[in-house]
Amino acid sequence: MTRPLIHIFGGTSDARQICAMMDIAGIDYGLSVATPTGAQQAIGVRGEIVTGRMEAEEMAEYLQKRGAKMVIDASHPYAERLSQNIVSACQKSGIPLICYIRPSDIDAVEHPLIHKVATIKQACEIAANLASRILLTTGSKQLADYMAHLKGKTVLARVLPTAEVLAMCESCGLSVDQIFALKGPFSADFNRAFYQFCQAEVVITKESGEQGGFREKVAPCLSLGLPCIVLCRPKQQFAGKGITWVNGLEEMTRLLANFCM
């Protein structure tokens, strides 16, 4: 008997771990990633890898065509539009949706040097008032927004080492002295040495959780006396028929165990 097909959206390490759970359980699945870099990172998973961004209508058509019986949204915590498209596609298609939540460490971290904000604009306003040399560890997707709010400041960006991302950095006006193309995860010791090497005066990061090395980014700031501005996750809690929220990989493991029974 063929197992029901599950389709997973997400190029995160969490998504890849969920794929590994599927492989162990012998569950048939597919994985959607946005970019060739995401596909490269997913090499080794047994499910079919689908590369490319899809809008809600395209998702719904694809899921119906493939006969998907369940969808798991394991996308990045800040990928709001993607998550909204997934919800719309599943509701249109009548497919049950599992929304995976990456556990957060934000409430466990309190210090006068840590500034928690809700928007990029707020992060940049605080950073601009604190220092002139600002390090971004927030990725490249919204780099242009940061640059627009940090005019007159020296912006340093730690980004993935791909041609597409480097071209984006250059298009935003960053010079070779401002671009640090590296792939994580990074240890706290590495981050401490890196902050010192690039002479950062303030660090802007995201509430990326354990999988994103959040504490490893924050702890060196505190030890070096650097202000750390944290862009908190968007408050998105989709509700509706057929939507189930799963908090962390342990809870996902239990859900999949029940699915296989």
UniProtKB/TrEMBL annotation:
InterPro entries: Precorrin-6x_reduct. Pathway: Cofactor biosynthesis; adenosylcobalamin biosynthesis. Pfam families: CbiJ (PF02571). One of its GO terms (biological process) is cobalamin biosynthetic process. It comes from the Bacteria. The keyword Oxidoreductase applies. GO terms for molecular function: precorrin-6A reductase activity. Keywords: Cobalamin biosynthesis, Oxidoreductase. PANTHER family: COBALT-PRECORRIN-6A REDUCTASE. NCBIfam families: precor6x_red (TIGR00715), PRK08057.1-1 (NF005967). This is Cobalt-precorrin-6A reductase. It comes from Xenorhabdus eapokensis.
